[in-house]
């Protein structure tokens, strides 16, 4: 499965933020070769056995960084 998220750093309080994000993702089952960063976006892939959606990843990442970096879905599911 593929996830696209928007990354917003509130400040520069987190040193080596991208490295720490990559370490967190790899430790949580993301395929290392799939992790891609652009300006404020992050894209990665993981196996379906993890049973997580984009919102779960965003919540986990935001919690891990204690709100110093916020993560939100790039393509949120729209409610009908």
Secondary structure tally, helices: 2
Separation, N- and C-terminal Cα atoms? 23 Å
Number of E-type strands: 4
Low-confidence stretches are none
Radius of gyration: 12 Å
Global shape? globular
Oligomer: single chain
Order of strands, widest sheet: 2-3-1-4
Major sheet details: 4 strands, antiparallel
The SSE string, one letter per element, is EHEEHE
Q: Kindly name the structural category.
A: alpha+beta
Percent in strands = 25-35%
How much helical structure, as a percent, in the residues? 25-40%
pLDDT averaged over residues? 90
Attribute tags:
alpha+beta; four-stranded antiparallel beta sheet; 80 residues; 4 strands
